Amino acid sequence: MPLALLALAIGALGIGTTEFVIMGVLPQVAGEYGVSIPTAGWLVSGYALGVLIGAPILTVLGTKVSRKKMLLFLMGVFIAGNALSAAAPTFSIMLIGRIITSFAHGAFFGIGSVVAASLVTPEKKASAISLMFMGLTVANIIGVPGGTYIGQAFGWRVTFTIVALLGVIGFLGVAMLVPEQGRPEAARIRTEFTAFRNVQVWLAMAMTVLGYGGVFAAITYIAPMMTDVAGFPESGVTWLLVLFGIGMFLGNLLGGKYADKALMPMLFTTLAALAAVLLLFTVTAHSQVLSAITLTAIGALGFATVPPLQKWILDQASAAPTLASAANIGAFNLGNALAAWLGGVVIDAGFGYTSPNWVGAILAGTALLLSFLAAYLDRRSRATATGAAPRHAEPEPAR
User: Fold this and answer.
1) Mind listing the pLDDT tens digit for each residue in 313-355?
2) Inside any domain, residue 333
3) Residues 159-174 pLDDT 10s
C-alpha cells in the first residue's frame, strides 16, 4: 500500500484520540466544571454536531484548493481546537474548543477517503479506506487509554495538550507523504451536490447515523457504567478502552477485507450482531468479565460497518464522491450526537447507567432494516437496467 495511506492514518490517529478520549475523562471534566455527567455529555454531542455541520461546509470550501492543501488546513484547525480545549477556563469555552476541533474531523475523513481510494486499484478501495481508518482504531488502543490514564493521573488538560501535539505530527505526516493531486475542477461544487439526488446515498447515511449511533449510545457513558455498575475501579476504565480499541482495530480490518468481496452481506451480519450484543450489554454490564468481553465485541462489530458504509457511499456517488463521503462522516457523528443525547435522556429519566445500551440496540436494529431496503432497491435497479438493455438493442420489426 502507498505510504500516503500512512500519513492519512497518522492524521486519523490524532482525530480519533480527541474524539474518544473525552469519554474516559468525562467524570474529571464534569467535576472540575461542576456540571452533571449528562451535561458533560454535551462535549460528545457538541463535537458530533460540529462534525455534522463542518463536514459539508469545509468540504465545499475545499474544492477551491488541492486536496492535500485542504488536509493540511484541517489539521491546523484540529491543533487550534485542542489547544483551546486544554486551556478552557469554563465549560462553555471547553465546548467551543471541542466544536472547533470537530470541524476538521468530517472533512478530513471525507476528503481522506477519496484520496485513499484514488491511490489503489478499484478492487482494493475498501481496504485502502480501512487502512486510513486504522489510525482511528489505533487511537482507541493507544491514544484513548493513554490519554485517559494521563487525564486521571495528571489532569485532563494535559491530555488535550498532548492531543494537540499529535495534531502537529499529523500535519507533518500529510505534508511529507500525501501527493498533490491537482486543483479540483471549477465546476466541482455544483457537481458534488448531484450525488444527493440518489436515494441510496441518503439510505447509506441513515444506516450510518443509526448503526454507529448504537455504538455511541453505550460508549459515551462507559466510564460511569463500568465504575458504578460493573464495579471497576476508576483506573480500570483505561484498560476497558484498550479492549474496545482492539475490537475496533480487528473489526475495521475485517470490514475492509470482506466489504471488497461481499459488501451487503457484511453489513447484514454486523448490524444484526451489533443490535444483539448491545441488548446483551444491559445484562453483562453487571459482570466485570462479561462486560469486558461485550465491550470488545461492540468495538469490533461497530467499526466493521465503517469501511462497507463508506465504500457504499463512494460507489453510489461515484461521479461526485467528495461531498457525499464527507457528509457520511458527518452522519457517523450525527449518530454519535443523537445516541449521546438519548443516552443522557434515559439516564436522567432514572433508568440507570445501563439504559443507553438498549437505546443503542434499537438504533442498530433500525439500521439493519434500512440495509435490507437498500439491498432490495439496488437489486431492483440492477434488474430494471438489465431488462431494459435487450429491449433497447432489439431491431425494429420489418414493415
Assistant:
1) 777 776 666 677 777 777 877 887 788 888 888 988 888 899 9
2) yes
3) 999 999 988 888 988 8
Question: Which structural domain range is residue 233 located in?
Answer: 4-179+188-384
Assess if residue 394 is contained within a domain.
no
Q: What is the 3-state secondary structure (H, E, C) of the chain?
A: CCCHHHHHHHHHHHHHHHHHHHHHCHHHHHHHHCCCHHHHCHHHHHHHHHHHHHHHHHHHHHHHCCHHHHHHHHHHHHHHHHHHHHHCCCHHHHHHHHHHHHHHHHHHHHHHHHHHHHCCCHHHHHHHHHHHHHHHHHHHHHHHHHHHHHHHHHCHHHHHHHHHHHHHHHHHHHHHHCCCCCCCCCCHHHHHHHHHHCHHHHHHHHHHHHHHHHHHHHHCCHHHHHHHHCCCCCCHHHHHHHHHHHHHHHHHHHHHHHHCCCHHHHHHHHHHHHHHHHHHHHHHCCCHHHHHHHHHHHHHHHHHCHHHHHHHHHHHCCCCHHHHHHHHHHHHHHHHHHHHHHHHHHHHCCCCCCHHHHHHHHHHHHHHHHHHHHHHHHHHHHHHHHHHHHHHHCCCCCC
In a domain, 399, yes or no: no
pTM for this prediction: 0.71
**Does 396 fall in a domain?**
no
In this structure, what CATH number is given to the domain that contains residue 85?
Answer: 1.20.1250.20
CA distance to 5, 6, 68, 183, 199, per residue, from 133 (Å): 10, 10, 17, 25, 26
The closest alpha carbon to 187, from 320, 328, 54, belongs to 320
Q: What are phi and psi of 130, to 5 degrees?
A: -65, -30
CB atoms within 10 A of CB 283: 13
* Contact residues for 251 (Cβ-Cβ < 8 A; gap 6+): 137, 270, 299, 300, 301, 302, 303, 304
Q: How many distinct structural domains can be found in the chain?
A: 1
What does the longest C-alpha to C-alpha distance in the chain come to?
A: 90
